């Protein structure tokens, strides 16, 4: 049994040696027609080209995802959330004001805080998103001011005159819901447009996916070229492992894995955010009256917190992006230094 184990181990060593020898012989035969100096110069050019393509593609692809995440976090998501909150706030203000009139609570001191708070929330919501959207908020702000004025007149100014109060509340309702030109229809249109902008910003397009493919293919080509260069230096020049090329190979493997996984995770989070923003828009546009307005407001608030939490968790991608940029520069510089120094030492100085 002992001798059988030794024979098995000996066969494995012979097979491993045979495989390595055959691969080395195969590659040696393919490179045999090249002179050593020309071969190293060719490897130097290939290393530089592959490294530049890989570094450039990685930089652009990572930058697109990072830029998209930043734009969604700073502009698109708050704009969608703000428009949804504004729509629900003005509808709830209308409901609360009508409830005061119908229950004859207008004359009671202390009543009306809810609808006034909702109007204030709607105004603040539009103010917060003014610099976060490219859409014109002038008309909507004007309608909100007119609507607030009519609602205030109907609940405060004419509280002792039922006919005038009813007329002002009807006028406010018309400003709010008039088809096509009312405050709510305009907010609906703006919400749909803003959601399209957010989706386009966060979604990974075919150009971006193509950039990742180019980066990965260039990194694979760079890794094989580095191995080939190390083989040539040991086989033709009798040199030990080049530390510059070994460091470049390790960085190449890391760059082929870490940025792809990290930015893939960030893209998944962006897709999740888009889904939440779509749900926020749907919930706010479906709600129209009654107790469902309060439920819709709570849902929008909860989903908005989730969106902020997810986008805040992606801030660590900045460090990965900076590391990718540094690693991309190193995979360009290290091979050039490693092969360039060897060529200069062995060939170029001897001219």
Could you please describe the fold and organization of this structure?
This protein is an all-alpha fold and 351 residues long. Helix content is 84%, strand content 0%. It is built from 10 helices and no strands. The longest helix is centred in the first third of the chain and has 67 residues. It is rod-shaped. The N terminus is likely disordered.
Question: What kind of oligomer do you see?
Answer: single chain
User: Which structural class is indicated by helix and strand composition?
Assistant: mainly alpha
Give the rounded overall mean pLDDT: 80
Low-confidence stretches: 1-8, 10-20, 105-111
Distance between the termini: 62 Å
Helix fraction?
over 70%
Q: What general outline do the C-alpha atoms trace?
A: rod-shaped
Give a quick rundown of the structure.
The protein is 84% helix and 0% strand. With 351 residues, the protein is mostly helical.
Comma- or semicolon-separated keywords:
mainly alpha, single chain, about 350 residues
Give the topology, please:
Blueprint: H1 2-31, H2 36-102, H3 113-128, H4 138-157, H5 162-177, H6 183-202, H7 206-236, H8 243-286, H9 292-313, H10 317-346
Helix pairs in contact: 2-3, 2-4, 2-5, 2-6, 2-7, 2-8, 2-9, 2-10, 3-4, 4-5, 6-8, 7-8, 8-9, 8-10
